[in-house]
Amino acid sequence: MKKRVLHFGWIATIAGIGLYLGLTAVQTELSLEQKIAQKLMIDVRYFCPQPGEEPCRQAVTRLPQELSQLITETGLGGVILFAENLQTPEQIIDLTQDLQHAAMQSPVGQPLFISVDQEGGRVFRTPRSFSTGFSGNMAIGATYARHGVFYAEQVGAVLGKELAVLGINTNHAPVVDVNSNPANPVINVRAFGEHPQPVAELSVALLSSMQQQGVLGTLKHFPGHGDTYLDSHLALPLVSHTHAHIEQLDLAPFQWAIEHTEVPMIMTAHIQYPALDASTILSTAGQSMIRPATMSRAILTDLLRQQMGFEGLVITDALDMAAISHYFTPSQAVQETFAAGADIALMPYPIRRPEDLVAFKALIAELASAVRQGELSAAELETSWQRIRSVKQRWLASTKPVVDRSALYQAARQQLGQPRHRELEQELARQALTLLHAEPGTLPLVTEQFSHIHLLAATPLQARMLRQSLSQHWPELAKGQVRWTESSFDDWQPEQALQLSQQADLVIHAGWQRLASLVDLGGMADATRQQRPAMSYAAAMQASEQVLQAARYADTRVILLGFGTPYELIPLMPYSDISMLAYHHGIEQSHDGSLYGPTYQVVAEALLGLTPMHGELPVRLTVPDLVVREAHE
Questions:
Q1: What is the pLDDT of residues 489-522, one digit of tens each?
Q2: I want to staple 228 with a disulfide (CB 3.0 to 4.6 A). Which of 14, 237, 342, 595 is the partner?
Q3: Can you give the pLDDT at residue 622?
Q4: DSSP string, 76-144
Q5: Arithmetic mean of pLDDT, 261-274
Q6: For strand 483-488 and strand 588-589, is the pairing parallel, antiparallel, or unpaired?
Q7: What predicted TM-score, i.e. pTM, was given to this entire model?
Q8: Active-site residue among 317, 320, 356, 520?
Q9: Does residue 573 carry a pLDDT above 90?
Q10: Is 317 a catalytic residue?
Q11: Beta 595-596 vs 588-589: how paired, if at all?
Q12: In 40-62, which positions are buried (b, 16+ CB within 10 angstroms) versus exposed (e)?
């Protein structure tokens, strides 16, 4: 790979000048423990002030004194927030201000990276009731053929604006993975598509626009999570491709981004890549295993830094994920990632109760001891700390916690979810909507032909949302002149579903959502309390096939609507007359009971001929005996 002009060399110079100009309060020399603390980013999702053995589920919405003191005493470098931490604009501002106040009271004098996973679509942490969630990256990818990077730029700008006014200065987005595996359970619609160059261009556009609003971004997950069939939250995936294949497919968007924009942070993947590093490591249990990328010096230092020329911060994916935590203790995991070349260890130790505060400080002491004993390089630690300080000087130099926050509250109310942002959300949903196939003469629907519609939906809420959207443009349906029946997989009655589908003039299948990945919900803290649907995915797909096949034999028209990953539509498409993909299933229900779902609205408009379908599928679907429309690279 060729070498290029790099972006971060000048940042260290500016940071150094800033020290002399008094632009940062950092002292000239930190202790070893303080430098290590700057390399740690913890979650503050839950905290219970009393000792106990039960899992702590008390959400941190106001900063507890215990956590505030920990940040001040250790000189912690960063935190990551989750949905439980984020309730109202005022509450979020209070939390982020208090976090920064605690950090600035430390002798280190450096502001925190206050981060979040705010990708849009499936992975979105702030409440959609007041912030703009969008349809996600694959929806943006569906607009690329017609609109280029326009929607990536627009979405990036809105994500940046809305995070910045809340005091969140770091976003672990965009996803730069090239999703080339239909069985990928964790990336799929979080990716822009399966072609490296569009993925690269869209990633850079979103990242650059977001960073223009003062929020630094994170490209993830290096060297690529797009061709895995395992979720690294639950297992350790392995990618067996050749080096050439990995370079052309997975590494290409990262390389292009490094060459074409300022990339402050790249997140690692907990994945084994033997073609990049086949060396082994012993787990805590003594098991010999191929090093995951997060612990590979060959991947993080030799490849990413030296060959690809990256000079920003390398941050690990969450170290509490099973791909790491099932094999290594927290101390081992952090030491191995630091030795590999990571600058920041994300979620190295869960702090839930007072006893965890002591254990976390012991972790820092243990890491410091490893440096003093030569097990970790003191010179590399110093270089890493200087790199962190440089990036903070570049992005966080204006961080100044305030006591009177009324102006911050007002700015947030003016910026969050403003009409133009909601309009853009609707516009993206409309431009992304993709017609996969339609039998001749089936679109638009001639409403006079239908007297009975039967809907198969994942949940009653989804059924209600779709009926509401159709009723806005179908007067007979709104007036109750068309019979409307429903079957929900939450309360599945197979005989009734079969009978009603055969009796109806029109059957609409509103898509079935796979069990959400842990990243959709938050992380490993959700593993033991993940709410499972009433029916398994496999059972729901089997039931769907039976009902749609019966409807087709009865000459009932069938419409298949996808509100998630396109791949799950493949077995059902042969039974449909019309197949459409909207990419996101999100529905917002307000306090008064009203529903808002941009993708459902545009689906209704398209079915009734009120809006064209311009989206082009950014991944391949192979369906026997059907020609599926898709975008070309």
A1: 888 899 999 999 999 999 999 976 554 454 555 5
A2: 237
A3: 83
A4: --EEEE-GGG--SHHHHHHHHHHHHHHHHTSTT----EEEE---BTTB--S-TTTS---S-HHHHHHTH
A5: 96
A6: unpaired
A7: 0.92
A8: 317
A9: yes
A10: yes
A11: antiparallel
A12: bbbbbbbbbeeeeeeebeebbee
